[in-house]
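Note to self: keep these together.
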Amino acid sequence: MKSQDITPKDPTNNAIIENKELNIWEALIPVFALVAMLFYNVFFVFGDDALSGSNQFILILGAAVAAIVGFFNKVSYKQMLEEVTENVKSTTGALLILLMVGALAGTWLISGVIPSMIYYGLQILNPTFFLVASVIICAIISIATGSSWTTSATVGIALIGIGNTLGISAGMTAGAVLSGGYFGDKMSPLSDTTNLAPAMAGGELFDHIKYMALTTVPTIIVTLTIFLIIGLNIDTNGTPDISDKLQAIDGAFNISPWLFSVPILVIILIVKKTPPLIALLIGTLLAAIAAIIAQPEIIMAISQTNIMSFEAAYKGVMKAITVDTAVVTSSLELNDLFTSGGMNGMLGTIWLIVCAMVFGGVMDAIGALSRISKALLSLATSTFGLFASTVASCLALNVTASDQYLALVVPGKMFKKAYQDRELAPENLSRTLEDSGTVTSVLVPWNTCGAYQSGVLGVSVADYFIYAFFNWISPFMTLLFAAFSIKIKQLQKS
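Structure:
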């Protein structure tokens, strides 16, 4: 899947550090400490506010515990710091994308792009089929772009707004957006993780995609069925009267279908393999121009002036790009919706990712990630056990290393020979890596993917977790196929 949109220079060369002196219990000490501290912090003290800063420091404390274990096992401070540096460096592209997404959200708000999507979407999308339609829309866009992150940052934000006005919880809508986004991302040849998984397993890209469809298509069908059932039974008090909301949007913005040209151009750029940062920057600048042309009253209100001038336009656009911006309408519900934090609104998420990379870097440096993966591999006494160990390893790394790339690279390297020894084709490993490592990363709040999606969609992981059906059903589907030996491909005899 391509969650981060920025592929490391050569992910296949990521070193896995081994420490022969580290035993499994020592490797698990930082994990137990981190989980215990996060549990107390979230469930007993801060709740959803934990992501505002306290969880970030808990990750630093977890890294400190790992460092202490490393010191007792003769791992130098320099080695740990170097690995942390490499980890943080690998997220540079993702962090820049986050900042640019914040900028894009601000300009898409004041230009009327997002309000126009909501305005027309309210008239087209019926509450009964809204969640199913959201899955399908996001799946199509994600296949075309190879990017669940871009999908969330564009149509995902608009769908959240439409869902809110239809009386559908943000958690449900976010679950539908992520289910569709990660299905498309996972099946797209443009996705970086879809390319990375077969590279780790020693397979070919299109063989991997074809084989992965065997578990992925049934999973998305189950997901669509669940969302259809929810839609048929959801309580939206009948067909909502949205006339007041439409009037409120029309009164605050100059709504026009021409504004859709901005997101369409961004999607075209990404399909044409334009680097995401460049595509998002162009989308931000185009929306800024559209705001000046189509929404001069909003620009003047933001810049606190009664005259439209170059200075007013510059000030209004720059404030929308960088700091909190709100457009007031006659609807209180919409007032909460038409707000953006700009680049400033992404800083909390960036802070979380950096701290997660510190923890993951120290864990890798002391050899804990390698030791945990080897312990899981030792439990594989059968073909099903091998698949189950791979799944468990990917899940464990998404939680401990806080990055989906490591959840593909480390188990991929560790389990490759084991699959070969059992005469299993590499597609078995690459599919399992994607079914368990790629899609579940978004279910961990401190993982780079969970932090990103939560920050962009404005919905906590706890709120969308249960509704991201595709993401948590996927590992169960791959285990089901393994348990009943369904389509388990063998190595070709030469």
